[in-house]
Amino acid sequence: MTNYKNEFYLDKAVTFLNHGSFGATPKVVMEEYQRLQIELEQQPVDFIARRSEALFAKARESAAHFLHTKAENIVFVQNTTTGLNIVANSLDLKQGDQVLTTNLEYGAAQRMWEILAERKGFKYTCSKISLPITSTEVFVNEFFKNVSDKTKVVFLSHITSATALLFPVKEIIAEAKKRQLITFIDGAHAPGHIPLNLTELDPDFYIGNFHKWVMSPKGSAFLYASQNAKKWLKPFIIGWGGIHNTAQANNLVDENQLPGTRDMSACLAVPKAIEYNLKHLTPKKRTEFKALIAFAKSKFETIFKTKAISEGKSDLQIYAHPLPQNIDGIHLKKHLWEAHKIEIPVMKINDIQYIRISVQIYVEQADIEKLVAVLTEYVGTIG
Q1: For residue 181, what is the DSSP state?
Q2: Which listed residue, 18, 95, 243, 380, has the most CB atoms within 10 A of its CB?
Q3: CA dist 30 → 135, 230, 267 (Å)
Q4: How far apart are the first and last CA of the chain?
Q5: Three-state DSSP class for 234?
Q6: The dihedral sign for the CA sequence 70, 75, 81, 85
Q7: CB-based contacts of 327: which residues, under 8 Å, 6+ apart?
Q8: Chain centroid, CA 243 distance in Å
Q9: What is the pLDDT of residues 28-50, one digit of tens each?
Q10: Burial class (CB in 10 A: 0-12, 13-18, 19+), 246
């Protein structure tokens, strides 16, 4: 039986239950990443000026196959936040227009929209989503409750960060298209976590990380734009794009792939990370993840005496549970880390605190049992 803990550089003194924040990269993928970095340093001009375009193209082919789309529809970006900003700043939103989203979005995305709304004069509207989500129909109705003739863009997460919920983005996209609205999805937590077919989903824009659940090195994410949506994009950083291959330029790739000198090794290591995923994250292993999440969920309900915000069994490797009001989440997180070296986030959204657990291939039941024992003791001291 493989001891997957040995395949990562993670500190064995730490109980690491927070893969969802920044991921963790297997040693074999890190070796490929570092090999590429050394190769770059051996002849930087040759690597960047002569070879990088072909190397990027090969890596994008692998990534596109994994995402079920065409390579010309995606470009590597540093992270999801970068990709979100490229798209949001490109959209021609004017005074009185509306961007429609939910009240459960990632904080950095919310801040982005709030600042842009203030600068440009459009309205950023957050539809309130009832928890737990009881059905796709209810979610869709609640989401579009605030739609109007001023709505231009619908924006939402595929999997939420703080609350770890899987949103019915396929249905939202379909309804938005009927209304001729631009569809823009924050997929930070989706690639490598759930099956993702961008051709079937067919959003206008989809941004996702490879360095979370695909486990590639930090600084590897992608921006997807449909064939029709590419025309709306403007380069966030204006560099050499559009000059070298003017006649046949792909606006998405040519304008965004190389915004000045960068170490592209993390992106070029994505195929190795995909290879690791396909080899090790088998259906059997994913069934084990579901069992670990179900175990954690049941224990949290017992310890905290609060109800889950997701109904039934989860197919996700991430789960967030609401804390009772008498628990100081900041103190709890600090206690778990400083006293027990348990790395797990406690986050607050809409005045509710959540403890969020992530399981990846290196997490074992014993890790969760340690967390459960510490939480049980902690809550017992509060009374």
Answers
A1: -
A2: 18
A3: 41, 33, 12
A4: 42
A5: coil
A6: negative
A7: 304, 353, 379, 382
A8: 32
A9: 999 999 999 999 999 999 999 99
A10: exposed
